[in-house]
Amino acid sequence: MAELAQVLKDFESLPEDVKEKLAELDLELSEGDITQKGYEKKRNKLLQPFVQAVADKAAAEKAAAQQEAATNSSSSSQQQSPEVSTVKAVPAAASAGAAKASRSGSSASGSTVSSTVDQTSGATIITVPGPTAAASAPDQAAAAANKPRSRRTHKRYYNEKRYHSEVRQEAVQQALAALHDKPKQVVPLPSKRASVAPAPPAGEDDDSSSGDDDGDGLQDTEDTEGSTNNLVVETRNLALGMSDTSSNNSLASGGPTRPPPPLPNPGESPASKPLPPSPQDDVLPPPPPPARQVSSTNSGTYTRDPTRKRTSSDGSSAGIRSSIAVEQQQAVPPPLPPQHHHSTPPTNPPPERVELRRRDDRQRREGESSRDSHQDSRHSRDVPSHQQNKRSSLIETETKPSTTNNKTTANSDLVETNLEPYDVLILSNETALKAKASSHHQHHQSPHQHGLISSSTPDVALPGLRHQQSGTPPPPLPPPMKSQYRHSAHVGSVRVSTGKYSHPSIHDSHSDIGTASRWKVSAKIQQLLNTLKKPKRRPLPEFYEDDDVELEIAARNKDPNAPSPEGSNMSPAVGSSLVIPAGLPRNLEAAIQRYGSATYKAPVATVLDPKGKLTITLTYGKLLSRSHKIAYALLNKIGLTGNNNGKEGMSFIKPGDRVALVYPNNDPLNMICAFYGCVMAGAVPVPIEVPLTRRDAGSQQIGFLLGSCNVSLALTSEACFKGLPKSANGDVTQFKGWPKLNWFITEHLARPPKEWNPPPRLTDETPAYVEYTTQQDGSVLGVSVSRTAMLAMARSLTLACGYTEGEIMVCVLDFKRDAGLWHAVIASVFNGMHVIFIPYSLMKVNPASWMQMITKHRATIAVCKSRDLHWGLLATKDHRDINLASLRLLLVADGANPWSLSSCDQFLTVFQSKGLRAEAICPCASSAEGLTVSVRRPGREGVNATGRGVLSMSALSYGVVRVDQENSLTSLTLQDCGQVLPGSVIVIVRMDGSPVICKTDEVGEILVSSSATATSYWGLPGLSQNIFKVRPETEDGKPVGDGDFVRTGLLGFLGPGGLVFVCGSRDGLMTVSGRKHNTDDIIATVLAVEPMKFIYRGRIAVFSITVLRDDRICVVAEQRPDCSEEESFQWMSRVLQAVDSIHTVGLYCLALVPHNHLPKTPLGGIHLSETKKRFLEGTLHPVNVLMCPHTCVTNLPKPREIHTDVGPASVIVGNLVQGNRLAEASGRDIGGLEDETVGGEPGTKKHQFIGEILRWRAQATADHVLFSLLNNRGVATQTLTCSQLHKKAERIACLLLEKGRLNTGDHVALIYPPGVDLIAAFYGCLYVGVVPVTIRPPHPQNLQTTLPTVRMIVDVSKSVVILSSSQVIKLLKSKEASNVVDIKSWCPTLDTDELPRRKLPGVYRAPTPELLAYLDFSVSTTGMLAGIKMSHASTTALCRAMKLQCELYPSRHVALCLDPYCGLGFALWCLSSVYSGHHTILIPPSEVEANPGLWLTAVSQYKVRDTFCSYGVMELCTRGLGGSVAQLKSRGVQLSCVRTLVVVAEERPRIALCNSFTALFAPLGLSPRAVSTSFGCRQNIAICLQGASSPDPSTVYVDLRALRHDRVTLVERGAPHSLPLMESGKLLPGMSLVIADPETKGQCGDSNLGEIWVECPHNSTGYYTIYGEDATYNDHFAAKLSTGSNTRTCYARTGYLGFLRRTQSIGCDGEQHDAVFVVGALDETMMLRGMRYHPIDIENSVLRSHKKIAECAVFTWTNLLVVVAELDGGENEALDLVPLVTNIVLEDHQLIVGIVVIADPGTVPINSRGEKQRMHLRDGFLADQLDPIYVAYNM
Questions:
Q1: Cα–Cα distance measured from residue 1835 to residue 1831, given in angstroms and rounded to the nearest whole number
Q2: What is the C-alpha separation between 861 and 644, in angstroms, rounded?
């Protein structure tokens, strides 16, 4: 590859024919006609002979160089003086590398650096003489050092200048340079899974320090200057792509290292010394001086493992700091003499590039390269073995007091400097402050004064905080544990607050002693955080309003310093009168008749075949006869099947009917015949593109146009008809959106009868033809042109362009519409001219074919676009034979585009020597509505015949014309588009509002009044009125002119002499923050940033989307296949910078898609509206995306200000003044509701302990069935009566006494699958006075994540014995379990499958009901493991409240489909049946997974009135039974018996899931009023529960924006920003509830959102966790109101936010019902911009953004919003989600998403209740454990 690079570098020495073939190949590649692989194959084959010659020459030179190096080595080693500093480096490179260093050094500083090879040690010795040494480097070396290096082997040598302007190119370079000294934004490169990342190009070498193999085009090509090893590493700022050199001069290549060369003068500062040229000097500024200098005399040798190459930045504003691995030397060399230390301050060495690598790329590719292996072996001599295979890990350092203050400061500074981007250490505040305070000491510290120790992270240099012995290696650190999160009923990991299980949160990571945090936080997140801390470019305006209108006002904020128009009122530009020359035909039909009769052999049109030969010519005689044939056939021969005046049968074409013309681009002759045949027949032709496939971009819109025009007939050619897609029976396929068409072939028709003549001409105002035009939104409209307008257009073009009979015109344009139709089909026939058509397919093969036709036929007119001029410039091989002297008119149809100027100028420059005259180039301005607006006259003369203006782009964005300097960065040079056409009048009106005439220096829309304009949009009278019937007026309302004007859609102004200047179009206009920008201007700037290396020119789309009431600019381009992710990311960053600097506007999104992936128009251009549509639908599938909402969204609401001076008393007073009710409610009074004889059961009130109640039931109702356990077939596998349960519990109690040897009050862990054994074990524990702890067994298929949770609860609960079944015990002690936990340290286990038959000697009775009955452990939604204590009194009070609320009696059947391990699920499973005596049907949720219909079938079978389930079960039924409802109904499943179906949850009710469940099963008789939710929490497991006689659940709609401010505002259903909330059930009897402010503890009013506080007999008695005595949690159970109605009562704080709303319903106590609405957990709320956000609201928005998002979760980290979305689709769709997620969160919540993580389904961890574990997800993300598909960091 190096030889190939050398051949391409010496391009000019290649033979001419080889250069021409290379240029052809490059053109094919740039236009997408050849793949990258095919291109390289052809190029390599072409250059093979030259490559071989270079290789032979290089081999000979290498042999000579080695011999010379050996000679120099021996001589220089003898002559070494004592004043020369010597540094030994690791022998990782040949002497050629050192020679390169010597050349670089001498060129940089003027002093000599010589290199020798130590033959004994194999090390390279680099000698640096003092400043007095004479410079004696060879001249060749100096020349080589000063010679700019080649940037890329794959070079473009042709003149690639489309869209290009020298001014713009220079402006971009200067803009990038101008921002060089500003604080640099460092944004981390997006993380991408290896399977998503594009495959590396073939031939890419893994060794970034080698210059031999340059596969991806961004490496520096090594020429005469370099060898295979880089000596100095350039660290590259990822966000801006700027060069910078390491601030501490650390070296990271695998080669030898040396100190930087000294300056010639000791007093000269490094900053003042000019630096050697950078490889990007044409674009990049020189690197800045280093922030800190390290002495040039280093005491240690820096080496690096070549398999680990990674450089990035930490994002600090001081510049780019390199992250280089520094290995500690085992032996420290003696310090150097002091004079060298002071006399040779360091300077920046010449920067070179080191390739950036992702972690996964490096692991995947390690060892692939033999060169890497060779270097590894050489490294192993000097690197200790334990340092060779290190893994990134957590780094913990302890700070010891340093002996020297200087050492400490330097060390802390080094820690800050060397933060490695992938494994950032979070240091304490103290350390960071020390680092900042001591930064200025760094320059004066020599590196050998502080020992550098290497960490386990390969690219981090840590200071010597622990002073080690010089020969002692640092201890290796353990690798980080990696866990997988998947959907499961088991929680993978649990967070406790302290102790050995603690996972400290990020906020607590700063310790007081300055140790590093335990968390290894991804450096990309850290970089992003640092970036966002920097000041924004534009501050947010100071305002806040809830109304969206205010956002729009902010988006359209007027700049008070904006320029305003100052000129006088503009007068209309009037064209010369339309004088019709004598001798012109009176109309087009007469023209055909005349020329077809008089000069019937004269050619009218000729088309070139694919080989460029003139094959078929149409004469005027043939045109006349063929058009007559077609006209006759249309009127008399073609019968259409369809509706004929209400009768089925045949109908014929009548004058005025529309007919589609479907002809390919290479068949203009048949199309011309068909066009004039329709005109003669009086039909209206509608020329359209050929539909090739059903999925053509825009084809559906064409179908809508045909339908609106009532087209039922399509004319086509025989060849085209054969190529159309056919159905099985041979008919043409029905295209999507198209009407039913009859296809008719217009060739080989019979002659009409001699006596037949075309019908007489209709009135002149009837339509002549309909031309289609595409709007900005992609809709296709039909522009109707009348016969009068068509004739007037032909006459005015004849006059303006000077057309005469017999002239030859060459046309490259599409002849079906626009200028191609007007000039080459209408005006040419009108004047009897000859047109040579060049098909688009031929232009791609031979871009110079149109110029060859001009030369061959001495054509006087050519009609083309600036694209064709550009292509002509590329075809350099054909320039020799071109002669354009005959050309008098070169009409540039898109001359209104701003970048057409450069194409015209360059074309003239190149071809002026070929006879092209400057006055022949005539740009014109045109639009579909106004037809030709203006054209520059050929052969013009005079002062104002032509002109150009250098205008300020900033002023243009405000709609004002201001002249700028030519060398300005922000100038735009425009050329005129000529004068107004004859017979036309042009005015410029303001773009917005009523059509008021502009001032002379104001940009507006061009309006034209002429007989030669279109008349209407077909079938759209309302829109036509606004476009075609405009009456402009002056400032005071007076109309201008007499007739109607037509809006052309072109934006511009009038110059001197009536010259028309166009600076954009309405379709390409983007209004951002009140300023207007043109898409073409943005394209020109984007393509000026080194485009050929990264993207395809011409394959780029710029459009705007509306987000948050303002336009946001998006750029989509096609990425080259050989461009790596790092390169494209750098390019995108530079584009952002260039656009921001030149246009002062931020790009919202930059997306790169694969090659040939953007939707195309029929002629190969980008289909802009289809691209935008796919972008917004999420079907574009980009490979790289960069979102920049932080910099361009400036109309966010002002952050909310918290008023700390408003206390709780003020709030109370405010509520009283406003008449608001204080928020409090209570359930029914429990006193007197239940006496000794309620339900005929005296025992339940008499006994205070649940165990006593079971013993009483075993005696009173021994055979009453309490429990039935169902399997997945619905069969009851186990039943328990009262006596059976009592006896089994007694036997378990005996087992505990005999084998467990337990004391009263000991804790026993019950680890059982859901079933009756768990219930029996629970009561067995109560019988002997021990405390049971129910724990979910580990999942056998997921021990890695579920077993540690089991072990943690066993340890935290201090259980002394484990009770379980033999199967579970076997699993706990299995070999698989031993890989996860230490199975030998389990506490004793007791198997309850084999129980003793003995009778229990006596039952334990607690001395007081306040003693502990059981422990309830649960993982909260915030990921906290919390155990609560339930006393006997609370247990019986809970059962009593549930019995009263749900009316549970022994005759009832209750079905449970819940997990029985904690909370209300445990109480219903184990306690309620024993207390109330009802029959409970137990259905484990795992059985429902196997059979989704099990639960509902059991409910129907047992006629269950009350049933309880979880959201997980409800979701299983909704998804699994969606199509089976009819089948269930046929099997007799009926749910009309259900009175209450309660979802047990500890979260906001999922109203959408409940509604969909209700709607799905309504056919089975399920009543909507039956479905409700419950609410409980750790402090009280049952607060709300829907009762049998309670009012129906209510739903309210609240304003989401008010909720963010802790206010509750009710709105109507369907109102904007409305959020539906469902009531969380009814308060249980005995419950008292208040809403309190969580901060001030004052009671809230009804209109406020606050924390729910409860007081009742069944509150938990407290937490039981490892921090049992922690005082901060006591408040949770004994909180008192600071102000309010009852300040003495102790409440339990639930930690949930909610509000009360009094409804119109009447409760069973006769009072109005107070509904409790739970909004969310307080711990999970996110305070962003001073407002409170609930994760579920943002997640619901994200789920709506794209159909492929299966699940999502959000969390915050250091004020960054992180969204994790699970992708249910292919990995190529991952990047589609990033813009859509960002958009919808901005729109719905006015929040900017900081990080978007796209992951596989199952990534979001779910607990047993189906609740998302967001904190676990956050911890996994920060520890790099998620294995995401893609991580996008929004700027």
A1: 13
A2: 48
Contact partners, residue 397, CB within 8 Å, separation at least 6 = 462, 465, 466, 515, 516
Q: How far is residue 886 from each of residues 242, 856, 861, 883, 1320, measured CA to CA in Å? A: 50, 10, 9, 8, 106
Rounded to 10°, the helix 429-437/405-417 angle is 110
Higher pLDDT, 593 or 1091: 593
* Contact (Cβ atoms closer than 8 angstroms) between residue 784 and residue 1014: yes
Burial 482-496 (b: 16+ CB within 10 A, else e): ebbbbebbbbbbbbb
- Nearest alpha carbon to residue 1249 among 1417, 1447, 1463, 1403: 1403
Please give the Cα distance from 1081 to 268 (Å, whole number).
45
**Residue 56 in tokens:** 């032979």
0.85 surpassed by pTM = no
DSSP 878: G
Q: How many Å apart are CA 1189 and CA 1745, to the nearest integer?
A: 17
Residue 1432 to residue 1661: CA distance in whole angstroms = 10
Distance CA 74, CA 83 (A): 19
508: helix, coil or strand?
Answer: helix
Q: Among the listed ranges 35-49, 1068-1082, 1507-1521, which one has the minimum average pLDDT value?
A: 35-49
CA separation for the pair 282, 546 (Å, rounded) = 50
900-911 and 866-874 helices, crossing angle to 10°: 40
Structure tokens, 1260: 């009173």
Residue 1016 pLDDT level (bands cut at 50, 70, 90): very high
- Please report which helix (H) or strand (E) contains residue 699, including its range: helix 699-708
Please name which of 1001, 997, 920, 905 lies closest in space to residue 956, comparing C-alpha atoms.
1001
Could you give the residue ranges of the DSSP H alpha helices within 1716-1808?
A: 1735-1745, 1777-1789
Interval 655-662 mean pLDDT: 91
| Mean local confidence (pLDDT), 797-810 | 93
Strands 1110-1119 and 1147-1153: parallel
In this prediction, what percent of the chain has a pLDDT beyond 70?
Answer: 70
- With cut-offs at 50, 70 and 90, classify the pLDDT of residue 229: very low
How far is residue 1616's CA from residue 1599's CA, in Å, rounded to a whole number?
8
pLDDT of 444: 43
Taking a C-beta distance cutoff of 8 angstroms, is the pair 116, 127 a contact?
A: yes
Tell me if residue 1364 falls in helix, strand or coil: strand
pLDDT digits (tens, 9 = 90+) for 620-651: 999 999 999 999 999 888 765 444 333 444 56
pLDDT band at 1281 (very low <50, low <70, confident <90, very high): very high
Interatomic CA distance for residues 442 and 446, integer angstroms: 8
* Burial (CB count <10 Å: 0-12, 13-18, 19+), residue 1501: middle
Question: Which ranges of 1363-1423 would DSSP assign to H, the alpha helix?
Answer: 1366-1372, 1375-1378
Q: What is the pLDDT of residues 770-796, one digit of tens each?
A: 999 988 888 899 999 999 999 999 999
d(CA 1037, CA 875): 55
Q: Is the pLDDT of residue 29 over 50?
A: yes
> What pLDDT, on a 0 to 100 scale, did the predictor assign at position 900?
85
Give the tokens for residue 920: 């022949």
- Torsion, CA 1505, CA 1508, CA 1513, CA 1518, rounded to 10: 40
